[in-house]
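A.,

Following up on our hallway conversation. Structure tokens first:
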């Protein structure tokens, strides 16, 4: 009963602060993942290209990101970016998270692109399309559809990873939890409350991606490899 009473007290005292911090967490997640998708798509093209130097650059980037803990990368990138550019903590944190997630999204895009039958590229080229036009109109629309389940999982991971920017003074959800528990001396209840906020956000993201999967009929393209041109 005491736990429930303390939890209710935290909601009452810090509810508005947590709500504002939740909005900032969503904004940070969206911005960082947009950056990650751009980086991921670029390095995915490097990986599937026949240019060895580009492939080596992509492999080195992905290896370094996968081989180091996220908190180490976050600190290194945050202080590195801040020392070169005058950016807000939010912007520097979003870029750092985007660079980290970009490596994983690059592999997702690379796998989905390579899952498309090579005959579809040949069919597009035989119709007079250039390589990039064939990629944009035929390959990418289908590969993006196949990548949605893996992207959904990575986006949820990105949402949870955003909590680490609390250590670089970004006032997101977990940062407010750290401040609140230091103020009210109820760490168990405070972290329980913030955990509920993260669970709700994950549930919302999951429902949105499930709706997107159903709308795009993910999996249909795996049954029949036919050329689909997007105009």
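Then the amino acids I'd put at each of the 231 positions:
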């Amino acid at each position: 009963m005491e736990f429930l009473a303390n939890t209710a007290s935290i909601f009452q005292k810090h509810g508005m602060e947590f709500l504002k911090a939740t909005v900032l967490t969503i904004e940070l997640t969206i911005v960082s993942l947009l950056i990650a998708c751009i980086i991921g798509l670029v390095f995915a093209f490097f990986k599937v290209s026949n240019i060895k130097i580009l492939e080596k650059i992509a492999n080195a980037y992905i290896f370094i990101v996968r081989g180091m803990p996220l908190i180490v990368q976050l600190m290194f990138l945050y202080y590195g970016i801040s020392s070169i550019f005058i950016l807000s903590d939010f912007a520097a944190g979003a870029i750092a998270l985007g660079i980290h997630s970009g490596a994983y999204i690059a592999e997702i895009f690379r796998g989905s692109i390579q899952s498309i039958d090579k005959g579809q590229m040949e069919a597009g080229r035989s119709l007079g399309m250039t390589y990039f036009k064939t990629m944009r109109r035929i390959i990418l629309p289908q590969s993006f559809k196949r990548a949605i389940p893996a992207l959904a999982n990575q986006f949820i991971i990105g949402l949870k990873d955003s909590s680490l920017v609390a250590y670089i003074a970004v006032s997101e959800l977990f940062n407010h939890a750290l401040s609140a528990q230091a103020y009210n001396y109820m760490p168990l209840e405070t972290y329980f409350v913030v955990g509920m906020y993260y669970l709700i956000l994950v549930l919302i993201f999951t429902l949105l991606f499930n709706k997107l999967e159903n709308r795009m009929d993910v999996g249909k393209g795996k049954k029949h490899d036919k050329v689909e041109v997007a105009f």
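The domain at 2-222 is CATH 1.10.3720.10 (MetI-like fold). Curious whether your intuition agrees with the design.

B.
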